User: Which sequence fits this backbone?
């Protein structure tokens, strides 16, 4: 599989984990992402959520999310696709996609295992997409879109069978914690008060804080700060924005406050962190 960075129509890319770095990110993605693990294991961090990925795990990403990947084994093999919203816009318009494909929502679970049969089927579709990319025959972009939708349908069936069943029988406190960190990952740039998240979750701020502390050993506000910190690292590593521009983009009133915030969590200034990452 060709691991070039070329984007078809500026909107679609496909690559495998072969010869990629052992550690990637944090990086802020502009695209929808889809990955399938075929062997080995890795740790994937999506916002504030961390998953261990093994064979047949499928993982999704949304535009604006901050992702990291650490490959744990030498036999790791995964396929990855990324595509713009415009590339699949027609499909999104024609479907109730958040209902039909809950993993395309911040509120949904974006990483879960497929069965062996489902994993084999998704891999065969990805290889067909690779054939389309190489051949570039007429209407190949339309064919790729249909293949992506087919993968979404397979994933949706698995999601409905496994994930929703697990959620319905799961721990209530952990469910609240999970919903909270997904909301923070989605809204942290505009919503910084724990009380606002508590209202979204229909619980008191005290109850939310207690639940968060039990399941993360951090306060609810510390998790908001952690998400801001993750976003800051992504900008420092992968953007040309100045420190001041990053500070204002993250909602700080001035660069000095951003410097103090970052140094408290990283034990170094944003500039030193950027220089070490280069």
Assistant:
């Amino acid at each position: 599989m060709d691991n070039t960075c070329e984007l078809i129509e500026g909107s679609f890319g496909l690559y495998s984990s072969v010869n990629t770095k052992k550690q990637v990110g944090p990086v802020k993605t502009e695209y929808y992402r889809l990955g399938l693990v075929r062997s080995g294991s890795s740790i994937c961090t999506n916002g504030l959520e961390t998953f261990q990925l093994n064979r047949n795990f499928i993982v999704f990403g949304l535009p604006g999310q901050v992702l990291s990947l650490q490959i744990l084994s030498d036999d790791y093999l995964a396929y990855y696709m990324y595509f713009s919203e415009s590339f699949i816009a027609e499909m999104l318009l024609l479907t109730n996609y958040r209902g039909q494909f809950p993993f395309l929502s911040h509120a949904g679970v974006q990483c879960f295992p497929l069965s062996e049969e489902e994993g084999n089927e998704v891999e065969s579709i990805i290889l067909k997409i690779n054939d389309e990319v190489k051949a570039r025959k007429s209407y190949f972009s339309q064919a790729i879109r249909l293949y992506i939708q087919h993968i979404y349908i397979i994933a949706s069936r698995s999601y409905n069978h496994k994930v929703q069943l697990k959620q319905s029988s799961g721990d209530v406190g952990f469910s609240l914690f999970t919903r909270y960190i997904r909301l923070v990952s989605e809204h942290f740039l505009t919503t910084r008060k724990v009380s606002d998240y508590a209202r979204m979750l229909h619980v008191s701020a005290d109850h939310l804080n207690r639940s968060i502390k039990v399941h993360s050993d951090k306060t609810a506000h510390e998790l908001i700060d952690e998400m801001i910190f993750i976003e800051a690292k992504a900008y420092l590593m992968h953007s040309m924005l100045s420190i001041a521009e990053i500070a204002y983009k993250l909602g700080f009133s001035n660069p000095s406050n951003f410097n103090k915030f970052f140094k408290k969590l990283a034990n170094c200034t944003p500039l030193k962190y950027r220089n070490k990452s280069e």
About this structure: The chain has two domains: 12-168, 172-277.
